[in-house]
Write a structure and sequence with these properties.
It contains twelve helices and 14 strands. It is α+β, with helices and mostly antiparallel strands and about 425 residues long. A seven-stranded antiparallel beta sheet has the order 8-9-11-12-10-13-14, with helices on one face.
């Protein structure tokens, strides 16, 4: 199945172009149908008519893609309604969602969003009760700051049966999504765990805390779940403030370089992403470990200047036999000479795989950098099977061919699940 590129779809193949045209036509059909059903929608929201809204939405929206989810609610910036269209955990579909919303008509009393929004504690409680038939009133949370610039959330409650209590996990997940909003959940939240409060002493402390409402919980450092949004908001501000005020390219000369050795799966014909990586060196170890570890990766957690972390993937099966450069370091030097002098980016790492060679990049202006990167790589006569890929999870299926004739890279089903 062809996954069309919606952000960097340069030089599409006939198959990709056909897939984009088909999907674009379905998007137009969806909005046309949505517009024609305004009277019914208003009737359902006002309680004046009965209509299978869920069945209609699933039929119409899933025609574009079966993984698209939706949610209605009140408008945020005035009277009316809002519609959220989200791919939830399949974040590689976010470029498609953005395309859908770009094509949205301007309708009175309607707002459209790509993420579920932040809700008040009262509304979040209602969402938890409606979706899990439980309450979040006796839940406390302890937040940890992880090297990946994620925030780990450990939830504590006497209502949790065990640490593998699925209902408890569902409860806190719905609560987190409602209190923080889906975008913050995706970009900033790491592991979520649940912990039953079993001891009588801890339960007594919890009950006293609930009565006092003083913010102290049954576990040292824990706060009541109602305080989670304020706490995470402050931590995001602190994390962003701690990031360098200068671009990565200005730190190259004084950088400390870190080496990683990996054990990739046995040799095979081809590898998607960086699954054949044997060794890698980087000047940004925290960013590297996050990009190669579990959970979603977003460049904004590592740059306050809007830099995008991406990489060149070069088919090195013939060891650069036909290239005009003998070493990858020469290629990195040539890229740096162009990117740094233009003040739009730099090379900040590299890697060697069973089949591919990799060069990591920090790019400040992607539109300006892409032509330069392609020019340098083409001048070096790198193999046709060479691409620019992106670390950001929502761009995991986006790519740019080094040549107009570069074929589509391998994308495996596992690549579309980045939250494991």
């Amino acid at each position: 199945m062809i996954t069309p590129r919606w952000i960097f779809g340069t030089h599409p193949s006939e198959a990709e172009l056909a897939a984009k045209e088909t999907t674009t036509s379905m998007i137009s059909d969806w909005w046309r149908e949505f517009n024609t059903q305004q009277e019914k929608l208003e009737g359902v929201f006002s309680g004046q008519i009965e209509w299978d809204l869920q069945g209609w939405m699933n039929t119409q929206l899933h025609a574009i893609h079966p993984s698209l989810m939706w949610e209605f609610g009140p408008a945020v910036h005035g009277p009316g309604h809002r519609l959220v269209i989200t791919p939830e955990s399949e974040v590689h579909l976010r470029p498609l969602v953005n395309k859908i919303l770009i094509e949205a008509p301007v309708l009175d009393n309607w707002e459209f969003y790509p993420y579920r929004l932040t809700e008040s504690a009262e509304v979040a409680e209602q969402s938890v009760q409606a979706r899990t038939e439980t309450s979040m009133e006796s839940i406390w949370v302890k937040v940890s700051i992880l090297p990946s610039h994620h925030f780990g959330l450990a939830f504590h409650s006497p209502d949790f049966a065990a640490e593998d209590d699925q209902l408890a996990f569902n409860t806190v997940f719905v609560a987190v999504e409602s209190l923080l909003g889906e975008e913050t959940l995706d970009k900033w939240i790491g592991p979520i765990t649940v912990h039953p409060v079993k001891s009588a002493r801890a339960k007594s402390a919890l009950q006293k805390s609930l009565k006092r409402k003083d913010g102290s919980g049954p576990v040292a450092g824990a706060v009541h779940i109602h305080e989670l949004n304020a706490l995470i908001t402050d931590l995001i501000v602190e994390t962003e403030s701690s990031l360098p005020d200068t671009p990565v390219r200005e730190a190259i000369e004084d950088a400390d370089w870190h080496m990683y050795n990996l054990d990739p799966p046995p040799a095979r014909d081809d590898y998607s992403r960086r699954y054949d990586l044997i060794s890698s060196v980087t000047m940004m170890p925290a960013m590297w470990e996050s990009a190669h570890g579990p959970g979603y990766f977003y460049s904004e957690r590592y740059s306050k200047l809007g830099e995008i972390f991406c990489y060149v993937k070069i088919d090195d099966v013939d060891a650069f036999e036909d290239c005009e450069v003998d070493e990858r370091s020469d290629l990195e030097e040539a890229l740096n000479e162009e990117l740094v002098s233009a003040e739009i980016g730099c090379c900040m790492g590299s890697g060697t795989g069973l089949r591919y060679a990799y060069i990591d990049l920090a790019i400040e202006d992607m539109d300006s950098a892409v032509p330069i990167i392609r020019k340098v790589l083409q001048a070096a006569a790198v193999p046709t099977r060479s691409w620019i890929h992106f670390y950001d999870s929502h761009w995991s299926t986006e790519w740019i061919g080094v040549y107009e004739t570069s074929p589509a890279p391998l994308v495996e089903e596992a690549d579309l699940k980045t939250d494991d």
